[in-house]
Amino acid sequence: MASAPAINIGISDDNRAKIADGLSRLLADSYTLYLKTHNFHWNVTGPMFNTLHTMFMAQYTELHTAVDDIAERIRALGFHAPGSYSQFAKLTSVAEETGVPKAQDMIRQLVEGHETVARTARSIFPIVDDAGDEPSADLLTQRMQIHEKTAWMLRSLLE
């Protein structure tokens, strides 16, 4: 059986590996935030229940799509995407929540989570830019925009 042809997309093997490593961290952060947001959707209580339940559902649904986009970009670069809890736990910068905080604390944690993911995306940008990897740059730009906007919207609930 013949092997697949080498990847020749105009990005060096070394740069593709560095980008895939960064995107793996972004994937882990995004998946961890997805899980946290889904947990909060299920467990939120209090006077803002309906608003937060609905908002959290929209946010975890968006994150569900995002993790697929990030993983597929890693694959397009020629690397395997991490896909287990243990891999994500090693790679993520988003703090896990195992308890059930009050609604206001859920909001605070999600603000921190979205800002963390935005910082991770931003930290990958220099290597992506230097490598001329426009598809990854576009993905990162979209992710930063979404996470910064979501953090702002959540932060507005705390004022």
TrEMBL record:
One Pfam family matching this protein: Ferritin
Coiled coil: none
Any one GO MF annotation of this record: oxidoreductase activity, acting on metal ions
Taxonomy, superkingdom: Bacteria
Domain Ferritin/DPS as annotated: residue spans: 21-159
PANTHER family in the record: DNA PROTECTION DURING STARVATION PROTEIN (PTHR42932:SF3), GENERAL STRESS PROTEIN 20U (PTHR42932)
Family membership: Belongs to the Dps family.
Protein name: DNA starvation/stationary phase protection protein
Organism of this sequence: Niveispirillum cyanobacteriorum
